[in-house]
Design goal:
The longest helix has 43 residues, at 68-110. 82% of the residues lie in helices and 4% in strands. The mean pLDDT is 95. With 112 residues, the protein is mainly alpha-helical. A hairpin with a 2-residue loop joins strand 1 and strand 2.
Length: 112
């Protein structure tokens, strides 16, 4: 069941939403997420495009029975975990302090 918002809580949410700190938090988030999402999607589409239209490249043996297609596929996992690790570090440095300050302000304002 959702918590009912009192007028005080609603006013606190509105004040925080309109604050410079919240704008900075949202900006920091988008500054990371948008380029990473675009970059990852382009990287993934390169994999798909090469798989469909460059089978000679993707079938190229790198060593033993390992070919370029297998390496591309495995690198998708490496990229995913790498982005998650970089995001965690970025978030801790650029977003968490702002979010913690906003939460403190909110809790002080509504008396929680």
């Amino acid at each position: 069941m959702a918590e009912k918002l009192t007028p005080e809580v609603h006013a606190a949410y509105e004040r925080i939403h309109d604050s410079e700190e919240f704008t900075q938090l949202r900006s920091n988030y988008l500054r990371f997420v948008v380029p990473m999402t675009v970059g990852f999607m382009l990287w993934y589409l390169l994999y798909v495009v090469c798989s469909n239209w460059a089978p000679g490249l993707m079938g190229t043996q790198v060593f033993g029975t390992i070919n370029v297609a297998l390496l591309f596929g495995l690198l998708q996992f490496v990229t995913t975990f790498g982005i998650a690790w970089v995001y965690a570090r970025y978030s801790a440095r650029a977003m968490d302090p702002i979010a913690a300050g906003l939460l403190d302000d909110f809790e002080r304002e509504v008396g929680r």
